[in-house]
Amino acid sequence: MMTSGEIARLVNGKLHGDANLPLSDVASIDAAGSEHLSYVGTEKHLPALIKSPPGAVLITDQLLDEIRHQSQFAMIVVVDPQAAFIQAMLSFRPPSPRARIGISPQAHVSATAAIGEDCNIHPGAFVGDRVVIGDRCEIKTGAVIGDDTVLGDDVTIHANAVLYHKVKIGARSIIHATAVIGADGFGYRVDNGRYHLIPHTGTVVIEEDVEIGAGTTIDRAMIEETVIGAGTKIDDQVMIAHNCVVGKHNVFASQVGLAGSVTSGDHVQCGGQVGVANHSEIGDGAALGGRAAVSGVIPGGQRYAGAPARPERDAAKAHIAMTRLPEMRAQLRKLIAQVNQLQSHIDQSTRSPESRAA
C-alpha cells in the first residue's frame, strides 16, 4: 500500500489532489478502480479515464489542462507517464530477488568449461566442452550450451533453449525458452536429383543487450557469421536464416521470417509476419507493417506495407483500390453492355436501305 503523495515523491511528479489517498496496486486505464494507480500517455485515452476513473493517474502537463476540472481522482504530473508508471509498478510489485544456487549437482557441466563468478546453473542444464560463461549468468533448467560457446556477463538462457556449438552471446542478452541458436542453415545442393546438405561451418554472433523470444530460431552461417546487432529485440517464433546480418536496435514482432543472407540496417522495425526474401537489403530506420513482403532493396527512413512491400501511402491507395474491385467490376460490365448496344445500333444503321442509298 502506498499513498498518492508517496508515489508523487517516488516519480518526482507534481501532485494535484489528496496526498493521503491510499493506493493498493497499479492497473491499466480500462481496468482501474478507486484504489489503483494508472497512467495516460495520449489524448485518445482520456475518455476511458473519465469513464472509469482510477484512484490516481500519472499524466503529462499538456493533458492535465484538458481534465483539470476533474476531482474524482488524484493527478500526478510527470514528463513521461509510462516510465513513471513502470517505476511505481515495480514498487507495488517488486521482482523476486535473484536466487543464488550456484552450479546444481543435477546439471551437467564439462570439466573443461570455464564458469564466471556468481553464476546459477540450474538442474538439468547441459554445459559442453570448452564453454566460457561470464559472471552472473543464469542457465535455466533444460538449457543446452554447446561445445566452444561463449557467453558474456549477465546473460540469461531460459529453460530448454539450445545454443549449438561455437555460438557467441553478448553481455546482458536474454535467450527465452525453447529458442534455438546456431542450427544448420536450410541450404542444399542437388546431385543426380537428390538433395545434399551443404555443411554450415560458420557461427552465430549475438551482440550485447539483445533479447531473443521464445521459440525463435537463428541459423548459423555457412562460412562466416549470422549476426544479431546490439540492442536488437526479437519476439517469439521468429525465423532468421543463415548468413543474415541484422543491424543494431532492430525490433521484430512475432513470426517475422528472414530468408538467407538478408541484411538490415540499424533501427529497423518489422511488424508481425513480415517476410523477407533471400539477399534482400533493408535500410536504416525502415519500418515494415505487418505481413509486408520484402524482396530486393528497401531504402531506409520510410514506412512500408503490403505485398510486395511499397511505401505506406502507395500501399494504402492500392488497398483502397482493391476494396473497390467488386464495384468497378460491376461498372465495367455495365459499360461493356452499353458499348455492345451502341455497336449493335451502328451495325444496324450501316445495313439499312437508307444508309446504302446515301
Keywords:
single chain; 358 residues; alpha/beta; eleven-stranded mixed sheet; ten-stranded parallel sheet; 7 helices; flat
Question: How would you describe this structure to a colleague?
Answer:
The chain is of the alpha/beta class. Helices cover 21% and strands 28% of the residues. The relative contact order is 0.05.
Strand order of the largest sheet: 10-13-16-19-24-27-30-33-36-39-40
CA radius of gyration is: 30 Å
Strand-pairing-aware structural class: alpha/beta
Q: How many H/I helices?
A: 7
Tell me the span between the first and last alpha carbons. 103 Å
Strand content: 25-35%
Question: Judging from the principal axes of the Cα atoms, what is the shape?
Answer: flat
Number of extended strands: 40
- Approximate helicity band: 10-25%
